[in-house]
Design a protein that fits this description.
With 297 residues, the protein is an alpha/beta fold. The chain has 9 helices and 11 strands.
């Protein structure tokens, strides 16, 4: 998964841009040909015409040209973009219809970008996409005296409408729309399943992250909940916030047991290794699990 190099790695490997990433991937990780790239690093920051505010605009003429250059660089290196980890769309669950529709339109622009790059899927949830970044709490309903969350249900209904529209658009272009366990409503795998079950579209699925969970009891149970909904891309992540609870091989085997046959994107969030060595460690862990898919616990 392509995010960015730390200052130490820049000193060691030199400064690279996203356009250099396909060849960097080929040279640094022999045998790896598929890339999951982060939308926040798209574009040439010296050219304001590619951006709307701080966000890369894939529909702008300079933006499209940049995407075409990235696609040609990937082809020349013998690599391909598998997935875009997209943080651009916001307000996908907003109660303001105009704001929600504006978020959907941004999502559609990124689906068009995926077509240019040949990507199979695009994540469509930023921390601000599905309501508050921190989920609201339930209260006691004054009529039934039973706990009820009055904020989440409207957010879910609005999100469902947004994902239906984006899935239809993506389906016409052969690009899947995905939801990652990634802040807000999407922090809860049951909310993701509700959205996916209700949208019920072959081009709308989950793209789980091994470590983006609220607490340790979700680490593997959350993954088991999402594995059957995942077909294209997952984040095989190590994150030191979980310490010894990190278990990449177990997580890979959970995905395999759930029927997953897509790509494991290597993402070393933070830990004792640098990003490159961490990704190489993840590569070995994923390969070990693929070579010996033991029963899942």
């Amino acid at each position: 998964a392509g995010t960015q190099l730390s200052d130490d790695l820049k000193k060691k490997n030199g400064e690279i841009t996203k356009l250099d990433y396909p060849q960097f991937t080929k040279d640094t990780f022999p045998g790896v040909t598929h890339m999951d790239i982060f939308s926040g690093l798209f574009g040439d920051v010296s050219d304001d015409s590619m951006f709307t505010g701080r966000q890369f605009d894939p529909s702008s003429a300079p933006g499209r040209k940049w995407l075409e250059t990235l696609a040609s660089r990937a082809a020349a290196a013998g690599t391909k973009v598998q997935h875009i980890s997209n943080n651009a769309p916001t307000n996908l669950a907003d109660s303001d219809a105009a704001a929600r529709k504006a978020g959907v339109e941004i999502g559609k622009k990124w689906l068009d970008a995926a077509v240019i790059l040949g990507a199979r899927s695009v994540r469509m949830n930023s921390p601000q996409a599905l309501g508050p970044s921190i989920r609201p709490n339930a209260i006691v309903d004054p009529e039934t005296r039973y706990p009820k969350n009055n904020e989440i249900v409207p957010l879910l209904h609005n999100a469902i409408e947004s994902y239906k529209e984006m899935a239809d658009y993506g389906g016409d272009r052969g690009v899947r729309v995905t939801i990652e366990n990634h802040w807000g409503l999407a922090a809860d795998p049951i909310n993701i399943r509700i959205i996916l079950d209700t949208v019920n579209h072959p081009f709308c699925e989950a793209s789980p992250d091994f470590c983006n969970w609220e607490h340790e009891l979700m680490l593997f149970n959350g993954l088991k909940a999402l594995a059957p909904y995942s077909h294209t891309n997952v984040h095989a992540k190590y994150w030191d916030r979980w310490g010894e609870r990190n278990d990449v091989q177990r997580s890979v085997r959970i995905m395999l047991a759930g029927g997953f046959k897509g790509t494991f994107a290597l993402e070393y969030e933070a830990g004792p290794l640098n990003g490159i060595e961490g990704a190489k460690y993840l590569y070995k862990e994923v390969l070990a699990a693929l070579s010996a898919p033991a029963p899942v616990i």
